[in-house]
Write the structure tokens for this entry.
Amino acid sequence: MSLQDFLSDLDKLVQEASAAFDAVTDAESLEVARVRYVGQKSGALRDIQKQISKIEPSDRKAAGMRFNESKAAIQDAFNDCKQRLGQGEAAAIDPTFDPTLPGLRPIVGHIHPITQTIEHLMEIMGRMGFEAAEGPEVEDPWHNFVALNIPEDHPARDPLDNFYLATANQNGVEPVSEGNQLLRSQTSTVQIRVMEKQKPPIRVISLGRVYRPDAPDATHFPMFHQMEGLFVDRHVTMANLKTVLRVFAANYLGDDVAIRFRPSFFPFTEPSVEVDFFWNDAWVEFGGAGMVDPNVFEAVGYDPEQYSGFAFGLGVERLCMRRHGITDIRDLYSGDLRFLRQF
Ligand code: PHE
């Protein structure tokens, strides 16, 4: 084979290869061209390389040099083509994609405002030495009423004011009555559960759900949360109660909060008070409190001559709503993400 023929074959191949790479539009056609022109095993380059041995020995050096140049040119054409394809790739997938725009923030779930409030309240009360206690949401009349000094005929036990459960027994479904289990109407049940298990001194809070058959409106919901507090020891006084609530209010609502007790009545405390905080130019009632009634101590086997204590129950939703400027309790339980995402 003459050097002339060899060189013209080589030029033809380079032209053919660069035309083929120019025509490539996607990864698939790129791969076809690569196998054909630069592939190690079946490449056209290799076929031509074999011809070198058939050339006059004196021309072989020149042929080899030109061969290497052509090989490099084809490799370059391949590299250019690969780069061109890579740049166009993002645009090919989504023509509206603009890599210069700022990224979208991924939507991550977060903790419900009431749960956040509960954690905050536990933290504040924890600093005053109150430990968290829990009780069941389905209660028996003993813990929700009887041990709390609420007798059988008390209006607070009315089926219209409580969610009594229709429970099944051997004779079928028991009708709803005041002797049945119920969804607890107050977290004061946990006072009894704690005192039944532990001896004084006691310093606990309990944060949880309570249920009352109220029609929902801006300030009522059939399920809400309370923070119950119980402190029992020797020589506990009402001054201790007021101090704890004042320190709590200053921590949760702000240093300038004033606190006021108004005389009231609860069967399980004597004396009893309504607790108001003065905040944002208004007195707002946040719950009830008082000194634990001796009858309650007797129900759990404490000696009322030795021990005294205070208890309080504050509305968690009310605290959360005041602090965050929420005006409708139903917003908290609507599941509306536009509302919930703000917290
Ligand atoms: N359990 C009362 C209520 O639900 C609040 C309270 C708790 C009052 C503890 C006194 C002591 O209204």
User: Anything to note?
Assistant: The domain at 113-340 is CATH 3.30.930.10 (BirA Bifunctional Protein; domain 2).
